[in-house]
Amino acid sequence: MLIFSGCDRKKITRTDTPTSGVATLASDDCYGNITQEEIDVFEALNQKAFLLPIYTSEKEAVELLLNDSVRLAILSRDLTEAEKQHIKARNRQLVPRAQKIGVDGIAIIVHKDNPDSLISLATLQKVMTGKVRAWRELNASSKLGEIVVVFDNPTSSTVYFMRDTVCGGEPLATERLHALNNNQAVLDYVIQTPNALGVIGVNWISNPHDTTQLSFNSKIRVLAVSRTHPATYGSSYKPYPAYLYLRSYPLTRDVYAVLTDLRGTLLSGFTHFVASDRGQRIILKSGLVPATKPIRTVQIKEHF
């Protein structure tokens, strides 16, 4: 403490490199498991690199970037022009840049014993805005009662996606939506609750043991989603990687590594790794579509 108290902070120089040092980053909890696996592999390859992740909501991750508390965030969107200008105004040396690292899907999940397998965007919008409240309104023979909708966090990217993209900006029925702590909590709740409908990142329900990537967590049922109403088997798609890549699945979005740090730093080295062949293989294994790696699609015939 005595040594550093007399130092001029302006004279402190960075000692990290693209493969060594200590740095903190933020990640939308929706991508927390992917981010952690990327970190684990990167650190295993670079023994002198230490990355400290903060898993939080997208809103809070962006605020950390804007306040210069972190200089890398894994998000479902790029920064707005206003946000970029805010960062530049704080520090002229920082130039915000975004690297697209994958294509993601938001999955709609229900209890494994729920007989429903299809849902249209129009119906999903009514559920989110409170116009449809009971399962019998979707299926006249259903005995499940009220639909309990669960999200990971009230300020999460999935909430914003539902409000802005699915509902066209119309307010969600917040008094009926239940925000849990994280995506794992959403998965656990749906597994235990017969009348639940969960909104979750597809990587949280993918089956890492299925090399064909045509199955999900067997403890829940994943609904197929249709752009047209009513939903039919022919118009509905599940969030398989091929359907994310082709944008056939309606609830698709991109994933970005948003970097505000200088070039040649540890965070820039990690971002480069995530976009590299090895980092993109981790994205593919998680059930998402890699952004910088060529992929091959195969025609399949699915039975719901």
Structure description:
- The chain is of the alpha/beta class and 304 residues long.
- The chain folds into two domains: 124 residues, 3-Layer(aba) Sandwich (D-Maltodextrin-Binding Protein, domain 2), CATH 3.40.190; 149 residues, Periplasmic binding protein-like II (D-Maltodextrin-Binding Protein, domain 2), CATH 3.40.190.10.
- The protein has ten helices and 13 strands.
- Strands 1, 2, 3, 4, 6, 7, 8, 9, 12 and 13 form a ten-stranded mixed sheet that branches. A three-stranded mixed sheet has the order 5-10-11.
- The longest helix has 14 residues.
- The N terminus is likely disordered.
Rg is 21 Å
**What is the name of the CATH superfamily of the largest domain?**
Periplasmic binding protein-like II
Q: Work out the count of structural domains.
A: 2
Q: Indicate the low-confidence ranges by residue numbers.
A: 1-11
CATH architectural arrangement of the largest domain: 3-Layer(aba) Sandwich
**Main sheet summary:** 10 strands, mixed
Cα-to-Cα separation, first versus last residue: 65 Å
User: What is the 3D shape?
Assistant: globular
Run of helices and strands: HEHEHEHEEHEHEHEEEEHEHHE
